[in-house]
């Protein structure tokens, strides 16, 4: 019996290699398990070639089914879907998107790979075809693929729940990603599921498997650690954090003035529309005519800075993506997390986080845009203390560590992680202790020069006891109650925001060196500082938080 099984496995491997002889060991293993009918969770780092797994599987299975197979791929972003369809069609393999299909198209099934958003595969039209056992679609679907499978957790409220978030169930974003398991009951018995992602810690893996009802899945997990990545974490005061971009301004000016080189490609990830506007305006102000490249003609087509978020016009998104892919004019892009998944950008040199990502999974997704050509790239994280209140605990541990930033960033995903041997190429903390004298060891990187500001000139620390914290909280409660003076509108604001204010205050209490820090916080929370509009209106219009939600590209995919 054992020899028979081994013979069958060898036969499968031969079929796979006949289709694609250049698959990596892990890719080949995933295809083999799918062909045996097993569910597979593949956690493979950026640039590994996750899509080649279902492409190779589709071709082998199509041969087995005499040309009558369909692989159903659910992806979160239209940019991912468009790129995949273009790649398959260019090789002569028929692929399409569900959103373009009519009933008669689903009856004919003139495609081998069918892509869709989660929302579109859960429509009545599509489910009726898939459930009908006499339909061609039901007969042909041989595998369900969920790309960027971590969104099953991060976009459905599951991560918020296990991180003890206060997010309410009706705040859940793109709940369709939590309902994909229903597709299994519509397909033929034994149809395997392939879940693909670049980063997933143990709890995320468990959530993915539970949500997709994966039956004893075969898990392939490669460390996301990328040795050509260097972390630099810079804490600064809120009032001076703009100066953390001055090195980039000088770099742009120097490249334009003194060399024929192109400006290194850079993505600046922001957590809100307000931050995108602030960063863009600051760069334009500091660069002046340099913002328009060597021509210095202030016309939109010469602008070296672009912006990208889920509310951008589709043609603007496409222009940005093409510019990044093809070495175009726009070299610096200020973006939301909408630019952090799926799209292949070959030579990004700098990823700047204007405030830490909400989770380490998001952090690694954003870092995954850079360094795909194998050359060294830099992740530069700039933050001020009260931004951490919105982050997962592992993000707080990461940015606050006094040890290796690489180890802190990757430990939840790889227990064996260690600093790089060449310390100065590892992270900003390791670089301080490096004395290897190799090339680059003593070179001071521009984004790690000290930014001197009013609060940085004198560094003060204090030991804050729990009793001290309680006294501060009680004092502010007294202030808020005194201010209310029985006014109903203020009491409404008080109930909604005081607890959040005190939570932030508690988080940064050790770092408060002056009353100015508290006044800055008051500006974020006090309605007197919010012009003439209400708190809710301001939040909606000017300080919309992307969180995971912005990663949807929802305007592109007709999704909810």
TrEMBL record:
<dbReference type="GO" id="GO:0043138">
    <property type="term" value="F:3'-5' DNA helicase activity"/>
</dbReference>
<dbReference type="InterPro" id="IPR027417">
    <property type="entry name" value="P-loop_NTPase"/>
</dbReference>
<keyword id="KW-0238">DNA-binding</keyword>
<dbReference type="Pfam" id="PF00271">
    <property type="entry name" value="Helicase_C"/>
</dbReference>
<dbReference type="GO" id="GO:0005524">
    <property type="term" value="F:ATP binding"/>
</dbReference>
<dbReference type="GO" id="GO:0005737">
    <property type="term" value="C:cytoplasm"/>
</dbReference>
<dbReference type="InterPro" id="IPR001650">
    <property type="entry name" value="Helicase_C-like"/>
</dbReference>
<dbReference type="GO" id="GO:0003677">
    <property type="term" value="F:DNA binding"/>
</dbReference>
<keyword id="KW-0067">ATP-binding</keyword>
<protein>
    <recommendedName>
        <fullName>DNA 3'-5' helicase</fullName>
        <ecNumber>5.6.2.4</ecNumber>
    </recommendedName>
</protein>
<dbReference type="GO" id="GO:0005634">
    <property type="term" value="C:nucleus"/>
</dbReference>
<dbReference type="Pfam" id="PF00270">
    <property type="entry name" value="DEAD"/>
</dbReference>
<keyword id="KW-0378">Hydrolase</keyword>
<dbReference type="InterPro" id="IPR011545">
    <property type="entry name" value="DEAD/DEAH_box_helicase_dom"/>
</dbReference>
<dbReference type="GO" id="GO:0000724">
    <property type="term" value="P:double-strand break repair via homologous recombination"/>
</dbReference>
<dbReference type="InterPro" id="IPR014001">
    <property type="entry name" value="Helicase_ATP-bd"/>
</dbReference>
<comment type="similarity">
    <text>Belongs to the helicase family. RecQ subfamily.</text>
</comment>
<keyword id="KW-0539">Nucleus</keyword>
<keyword id="KW-0547">Nucleotide-binding</keyword>
<dbReference type="GO" id="GO:0009378">
    <property type="term" value="F:four-way junction helicase activity"/>
</dbReference>
<keyword id="KW-0347">Helicase</keyword>
<keyword id="KW-0413">Isomerase</keyword>
<dbReference type="GO" id="GO:0005694">
    <property type="term" value="C:chromosome"/>
</dbReference>
């Amino acid at each position: 019996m054992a020899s028979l099984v081994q013979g069958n496995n060898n036969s499968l491997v031969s079929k796979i290699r006949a289709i694609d002889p250049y698959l990596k060991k892990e890719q080949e293993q995933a295809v083999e398990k799918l062909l045996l009918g097993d569910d597979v969770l593949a956690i493979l780092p950026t640039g590994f070639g996750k899509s080649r797994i279902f492409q190779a599987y589709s071709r082998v299975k199509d041969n087995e089914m005499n040309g009558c197979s369909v692989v159903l791929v659910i992806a979160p972003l239209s940019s991912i879907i468009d790129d995949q369809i273009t790649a398959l069609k260019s090789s002569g393999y028929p692929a399409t998107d569900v959103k373009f299909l009519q009933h008669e198209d689903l009856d004919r099934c003139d495609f081998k790979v069918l892509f869709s958003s989660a929302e579109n595969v859960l429509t009545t039209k599509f489910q009726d075809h898939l459930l009908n056992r006499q339909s061609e679609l039901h007969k042909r679907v041989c595998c369900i693929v969920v790309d960027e499978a971590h969104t099953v957790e991060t976009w459905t409220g599951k991560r918020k729940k296990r991180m003890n978030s206060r997010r309410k169930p009706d705040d859940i974003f793109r709940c369709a990603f939590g309902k994909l398991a229903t597709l299994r009951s519509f397909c033929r018995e034994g149809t395997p599921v392939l879940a693909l992602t670049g980063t997933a810690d143990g709890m995320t893996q468990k959530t993915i498997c539970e949500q997709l009802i994966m039956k004893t899945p075969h898990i392939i997990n490669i460390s996301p650690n990328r040795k050509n990545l260097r972390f630099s974490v810079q804490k600064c005061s809120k009032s001076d954090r703009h100066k953390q971009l001055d090195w980039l301004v000088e770099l742009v000016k120097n490249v334009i003035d003194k060399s024929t080189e192109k400006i290194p490609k850079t993505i600046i990830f922001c957590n809100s529309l307000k931050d995108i506007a602030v960063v863009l305006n600051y760069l334009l102000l500091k660069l002046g005519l340099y913002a328009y490249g060597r021509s210095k003609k202030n016309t939109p087509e010469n602008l070296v800075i672009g912006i990208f978020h889920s509310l951008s016009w589709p043609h603007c998104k496409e222009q940005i993506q093409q510019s990044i892919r093809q070495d175009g004019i726009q070299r610096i892009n200020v973006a939301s997390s909408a630019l952090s998944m799926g799209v292949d950008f070959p030579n990004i040199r700098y990823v700047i986080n204007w405030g830490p990502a909400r989770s380490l999974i998001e952090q690694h997704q954003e870092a995954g845009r850079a360094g795909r050509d194998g050359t060294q790239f830099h992740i530069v994280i700039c933050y001020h203390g009260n931004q951490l209140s919105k982050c997962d605990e592992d993000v707080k541990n990461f940015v606050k560590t006094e040890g290796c930033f690489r180890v802190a960033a990757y430990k939840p995903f790889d227990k064996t992680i260690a600093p790089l041997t060449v310390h100065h190429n590892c992270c900003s903390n390791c670089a301080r202790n490096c004395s290897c004298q190799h090339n680059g060891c003593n070179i001071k990187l521009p984004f790690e020069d000290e930014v001197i500001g009013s609060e940085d000139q004198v560094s003060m620390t204090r030991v804050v006891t729990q009793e001290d914290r309680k006294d501060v909280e009680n004092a502010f409660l007294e202030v808020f109650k005194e201010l209310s003076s029985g006014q109903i509108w203020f009491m409404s604001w008080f109930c909604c925001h005081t607890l959040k204010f005190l939570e932030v205050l508690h988080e940064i209490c050790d770092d408060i060196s002056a009353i100015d820090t508290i006044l800055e916080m008051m500006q974020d929370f006090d309605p007197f500082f919010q012009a003439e509009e209400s708190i809710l209106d301001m939040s909606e219009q000017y300080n919309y938080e992307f969180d995971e939600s912005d990663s949807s590209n929802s305007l592109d995919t007709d999704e909810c």
